[in-house]
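Before the break, one more example. Copy the sequence into your notebook; we will annotate it together after we see the structure.
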Amino acid sequence: MKILAIQTSPNHEGLTATCARQVLHGARQAGAEVELVHLCDLDIQRCRQCEDGWGACRSEGCCVIEDDFPAVREKLWAADALVLSTPVYYGDLSESCKAFLDRLRRCEAPRAEANKLRGKPVLGIAAAGGGGGGTVTCMFTLERTFSHIGMEVFDLLPVKRRTKEYVLPALEGAGEALARWTAASAG
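Here is what the structure looks like once it is written out:
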């Protein structure tokens, strides 16, 4: 069983990446193979809404932009469960997270019969630094987007700089639970 985490902060050592690593640590302890993708290290361009928004993504399930998106999408398809960790910027997803999820939604959601992510469990994390506001609206956006894609929301977890001491162990536990639940669901 493989669990893939995508963290969407440019800071590899910040709160968002730490949260993703904690979940993967827990999943590894439960026997899962894990991988962490640092999305900001890749070339993921924003959706261009080709053909007035009705481009190849909607009709054929592929995006015409030549960047790293297809490779990450294939990793998503190959994983048994997913983790997405985003920093909270101005009460919303990070720009890199938005760009990635917009393209993923356009390619997967309209093609229900060919959607390789339908029913796949996903754990979303909203990591807020600074004053810590905006996690709830960010998690709402994650839940709505995952639902549009057809993924099964395993959990949505908020973390703030001032709550990380007690939330980080919970994230490790969430990783263990995600791995066990995914393994039990598959077998």
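The CA atoms of residues 82 and 132 lie 24 Å apart. The mean pLDDT is 92. Try to locate both features in your own notes.
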